[in-house]
Amino acid sequence: MKFHLMQTGVIGRRHELEAGMAGQRPELYQRFLAEVRDYVRLADDLGYAAYCQPEHHLQIEGFEINNHPGMFSLYVGLHSKRMKAGIMGYTLPTHNPVRVAEEIATLDHMLQGRLQVGFTRGYHARWVDSMAARPGVSATTPVNAKARDEQDALNREVFEESLQVIKKAWASDVFSHKGKHWQFPPEGGSAGHPAYASMGKGMDADGIVRQIGIAPKCYQSPHPKIYGGFAGSMTTVDMWAREGGKPIVLAADLDFCDALWNRYADTARKHEREVAREDVAAWGGFLMLTDDKDKARQLLAEHQWFWDKWFIPFGQKMPNVLIGSADEIADQIGRAHDRLGFNELFLMFGQGHLNPDQNNEELEKFASLVAPRFATKDAEGTLV
């Protein structure tokens, strides 16, 4: 089993967040970068498989200050030796998909394959609405109930078509695409160049560009591993089963998870994809490791404040919580593993709103007391 760390991107402690506008304080962002660097180095030494982050923008309050997936993953790669950087993920309704395909391929080369990438739809209306890549696209969090179905459908359409464009760009030397929301090259083609004919591809006999290609191609063949960021619905599971992504599921309800695993496998089979149970999806939750019951209650309360203050108003339920001693957490993981058969575990931790000493202790104890029950280190030092 592989173990991945996931940060939410919090810039400050609780009192600093409550003071207001923490996201715009330079000294807090400098501390944030230094702390993330140290977490990455520690995780690399301990054998974690990847250090991951989501994408969010305009977070002046300081709760999720991960505003450039590629740039941040390069930062992770610069401060690690064998561990992968994980983008979880690009929020596709806010991006040109060809540009995303090329950026990921470039980053894959810079990290020499130490990259894994996920894609998400975007729940935070303030920034998704402001940065939408296509007219009318909005976040999955509706302004009102009346707008929910139409808004969600458009977001999903753009998301799915963007993913298909990215995969096409990775798979082909040159390609064209004409869909409902994207067309590459644009209608009528683009002006060509003599070198396109003698040293490239995609231009017709009249000197019009009819196909395009990205450069470079991905370092990993055919591309980095694709994950689906935080799947919670069967519709999303069906989509990933068709498209070949691995959903990340942070749910405690094992009956729901079991149904999700079965649904994915059935849908994949209908699309001529036979997927082993361990490759269907990844599981995980929020790590709160301590032998002290009073401290466990304090940790839960602190994480609950963080979640209630920021995520609950967006309709984001608190994820599964892995709380207790090493034995208790190992039992939680073991029960889930016996039921679901996953081979990857994603662990959120208290980056930002908890002090580094607390987080470092939890990460070290998990790597030394829990992970070895499910994995051994390979030649590179990764827990597998």
Which descriptors apply to this entry?
alpha/beta, two-stranded antiparallel sheet, 384 residues, 8-stranded parallel barrel, 42% helix, Bact_Lucif_Oxidored, TIM Barrel, Luciferase-like protein, 14% strand
Sheet with the most strands, sense and barrel status: 8 strands, parallel, barrel
Q: How far do the termini sit from each other? A: 5 Å
Cα-atom radius of gyration: 21 Å
How many E strands? 13
Our count of helices gives 12
CATH fold description of the largest domain: TIM Barrel
- What is the mean predicted local confidence, pLDDT? 96
CATH class of the largest domain: Alpha Beta
GO cellular component, one term: cytosol
GO molecular function: oxidoreductase activity, acting on paired donors, with incorporation or reduction of molecular oxygen
Domain Luciferase-like: 31-308
InterPro entries: Bact_Lucif_Oxidored, Luciferase-like_dom, Luciferase-like_sf
Explained architecture:
The chain is of the alpha/beta class and 384 residues long. It has two domains: 2-172 and 218-374, Alpha-Beta Barrel (TIM Barrel); 177-212, no CATH class. It has twelve helices and 13 strands. The strands form three sheets. It has an eight-stranded parallel β-barrel, surrounded by seven helices. Helix 2 packs parallel to helix 12 (356-370), helix 4 crosses helix 6 and helix 8 packs parallel to helix 9.
